[in-house]
Amino acid sequence: MRTYRYHLVNVFVESDAATFGGNPLCVFENARGMSDCEMQSLAAQFNLSETTFLLPRDNAPPNVRIFTPAFEMPFAGHPTIGTSFVVNAIGLPGCTGNALTLNMKAGDIPVTLEAAGWTLTANAHASRSSGISRADTAVMLGIAEADLAQEARYVDNGSEQLVIPVASVEALARVKPSAQLLSKFVRNKLERYLAYVVARVSKDRFQVRFFFPKDGDMMAEDPGTGSACACLGGYLLDSGEPTPSQFTVTQGEFINRLNVLQLSLTADKRVRVGGRVVALGSGEIRLP
What we know:
The protein is of the alpha+beta class. The chain has helices at residues 36-46, 77-89, 134-141, 169-174, 179-185, 226-238, and strands spanning 2-13, 23-28, 51-57, 60-67, 72-73, 99-104, 107-114, 117-121, 126-129, 153-156, 161-166, 195-202, 205-214, 218-222, 245-251, 259-265, 271-287.
């Protein structure tokens, strides 16, 4: 039998005492010897939004594979933040101290430990028009055209998302997306229909919701989405947001799972996303 150790953490918690807040993550600390099929099966077994698998390397940043219960992802924010916490906590060579690098399929992601928790620097972003009319955008979200703010745009920093600004938190609360209509109008580079809906609360605060397809015609809501938060940073840069800037982004309020993310735009127009992580437990899985 092969034995693999895993860790359960919650990412983007409000505080170090918020044991059951944030977005859950499972991290396998050394997945050498696992097949892709086994990684995918374990992600389905744990049934969290993502599970990560570390593949340590000598004298190089560890490789990190990220799997949802259904497919592999090239990059995702809360797995990057949570995995950084774990590799640092277990003392993985090259990952001690306050700065480390993780090698994702989307490329090397630098991560640092700061006062607000672990913080990643996203890859340079690209963006494009959604090509979706305001009328169609409103209908697929179940809101009125007057509830929309700026145009919806695709933003890609390794994981392309559709960023849709709405005019208020009240409009955000009314969003009830149609899986049928999202599948008709929305397609990111991975051929998935996702919606990251954003309300600006104040100069330095946003409230957001992230929707993705699950179980056929059903839409699910993710409690905390770091890659999409980085895409919001790209959207703001493209919109002429002054730099440097710092924002607090909250997510998950409508599903009783508060996540608190820190988003910053640097003077050289880089996007950084961070948050606090708490450890929940650990264990072992045995495979034949």
